Give the backbone structure.
Amino acid sequence: MIDLKNLTIENAHKGMKSGAFTCRELVEEYLKVIKEKNPELNIYLEVFEDATAQADVAQKKFTEGTATTLTGIPFAIKDNMLFMGHKVSAGSKILENYKATYNATVVEKLKSAGAVILGRANMDEFAMGSSTENSAYGVTKNPYDSERVAGGSSGGPACAVAVDGALFALGTDTGSSIRQPASFCGVVGLYPTYGSVSRFGIIAMGNSLDQVGPLAKNVRDTEIVFNALSGYDLMDATSIPDNFRAQIPSEVKRVGVPRHLLKGEGIDLELMENFEKSLTKLKSAGYEIVDIEMPYTKYSLPVYYIIMPAEVSTNLARFDGIRYGFSSPGKDLMEVYKKSRGHGFGREPRRRILLGAYVLSHGYYDAYYNKANKIRSLIINDFDNAFQKVDVIAMPTSPFPPFKIGEKSDDPLAMYFADIFTVPANVAGVPAISIPNSFTKTGLPLDMQFIAPKFGENRLFEIGKKFETIR
Ligand code: GLN
């Protein structure tokens, strides 16, 4: 028996290196947990049949002496990442039996390090949502309370890590989708600097916002995976070349808190009390807590919900019943399009395609899309100004603890409000990390979010590791 609960990437590596257990034994332990937990929690849409074969390939690297830290480490991918020869559905019926014809760069990188992909984990359809209730394959349940959601859209990956169904997972974050499910499942989640990790081979949601990032049990594991993922990729036009990546000193002294953004209806009071307590602890640990003003950042949520659907409507145009996946027969081409898209997409993608087409349409482009982009620049300025004064910004990840299944699924605006504290980082393209904090009186996980300037991931890891010791 391997003690999965206390296993970290580094001590799993030691275990395999010393021969305490083999790669296959480790993978089989995880497969056992998945078999036991998946029927109840609905974490994985598919466990890959070749997982143990991948472990044997990894074992060879140990025998040959070419193993590195991630060799043999079992992990989950979100169902929107291409792994050649394996199904990838983006949580949608329209791609139900679609198989990837090449590897996403992030998959390629981890595969060549010898890490083992256990399977593809559940998500909201095309990554749209905050609860995985929009998945065409059923909701993923919260590991702390199975009447509640695991968060979204990377609910499957987050839950996998939380219940020891994977040692780490990859998610994507367009507006919250790594950090918010990490918060709801009590694990760490990182949204990296926009342009730092390749988007090649990821089923796109919002191209100017999407990043792939790790979900893991602690900050150190998150750091190891991020370092393996990050780097320039010729195949992604928005990937930032290595010589344009700023070198930011990792030391953190001043923590900024935009208190004016943290007030208002719908924000949980117990959660805010806990957040204030955490600030006190940070202060006792020697950090200076500084009030900061970010006057335009309050518009992040409306800006996001204009720019994101605009990009969604463009990206999802390719799923037309001809080129990919599900196709419904019709008397002419238009009918094929209509039926395939009408039946293939669920409600949320259809809603966002309509919203996006509207804000991009001739008569409304200036009023909505253009205006949102202008405000986006002002929000970027807010962050630039803030980082003149402080090293990182602290705020909660989620405005409320995990909610009940069904509680918000008929109210899109209530669901969108879940993103209030996470979308500012995406709109500005700056890195942010969600770290488990304490628990509510009823035992639900709470979080702490730190945000850094572009390429300031090292700052997030530095203060994050400290926070883990004082929370
Ligand atoms: N809650 C966000 C949304 O519904 C999540 C998007 C994401 O990060 N993939 O748009």
In short: The CA atoms of residues 196 and 231 lie 6 Å apart.
